[in-house]
């Protein structure tokens, strides 16, 4: 029998109730090469990176941020990028030490580092583990060489699987990413690839549909008709295959693109989706901080060298620090929370916005099969509603 598409994951350390989690995101902006589909804040530098200088700047921005948001207990840390696994283990250690110096770090806190299969080696992973990393997330993206070449990846499928094996030996918790709805991909081929991935993944997979983002090389190729992606019907079939194969293998979706065994959800990402507080450190990092009863939406200078100079001059690289009003905060809570299989508590929306969700709109979306409402009032998007999630959110927020 197929499992429910709405698992109820047990609480993890520091995430048992809303308002109890605090995350720190650290952005390492450098990559070996820029993937043609990527619109993230990542940069290629052919000269050596001065890691000691960047480590000092990270520590300085952490100190300044902690002075604005003191007394927090950090429940999760995420080193993302870019390619954080290009950092020396001692640089990672220095960043983690700075966090622990300025905030309390909860016992059993999740500490994740993103890695590419091209930058993985056993000795380096041992160094990360010694520095305090306890979970890695690998950017595998595909398990066949032709697709990897098309995606601009620098590793082979064999190298990717070898990297997963190293992660398995080095860490109790690990995850990897795959991109689907790729050009010429069929449902049968994706089923085989996904099944192989699940056999390699102990507890967690992030599975993303290929999207064509403006400003990327893929955008120009797609506009010129030189890159053909699956049509809407095939993309929906591939999405449905993803849910079915993962459900049958015990990795149900706990978020629209993330699948995990019960209890293995990424705690740091749950901070974002549950609307909790998090600090954004490093070039182009975003944060959400509660200061004097107000929610601050922060972001830092994107250009690495410009960020570095700002931090050295003034202690931080923040270039945007907006106060979210009640309506903006409630809409963000709705947008993020409905991505989760666990859904949202409408009472929290009421507390944030000062107005309830429209019961007529809820009733209509229920009739259409896009949402369900639990006995306790918790609102969830259904499996049929997830492919049109943006429309569901827009309808509820109107």
What's the topology here?
Blueprint: E1 22-28, E2 30-31, E3 43-44, H1 51-68, E4 73-81, H2 89-102, E5 104-115, H3 122-131, E6 135-141, H4 145-150, H5 157-170, E7 173-180, H6 187-200, E8 204-209, H7 217-223, H8 232-248, E9 253-255, E10 258-260, H9 267-273, E11 277-281, E12 286-291, E13 294-300, H10 304-314, E14 318-323, H11 326-337, H12 346-353, H13 359-367, E15 371-373, E16 379-381, H14 389-397
Parallel strand pairs: 1-4, 1-11, 2-3, 4-5, 5-6, 6-7, 7-8
Antiparallel strand pairs: 8-10, 9-10, 12-13, 13-14, 15-16
Model description:
The protein has helices at residues 51-68, 89-102, 122-131, 145-150, 157-170, 187-200, 217-223, 232-248, 267-273, 304-314, 326-337, 346-353, 359-367, 389-397; strands at 22-28, 30-31, 43-44, 73-81, 104-115, 135-141, 173-180, 204-209, 253-255, 258-260, 277-281, 286-291, 294-300, 318-323, 371-373, 379-381. By secondary structure, the chain is α/β, with parallel strands linked by helices. The protein has 2 domains: 22-272, Aldolase class I (TIM Barrel); 327-398, Arc Repressor Mutant, subunit A (Orthogonal Bundle), CATH 1.10.10.920. The strands form 4 sheets. A 9-stranded mixed β-sheet has the order 9-10-8-7-6-5-4-1-11, sandwiched between helices. Strands 12-13-14 form a 3-stranded antiparallel β-sheet, with no helix packed on it. Helix 1 packs parallel to helix 2.
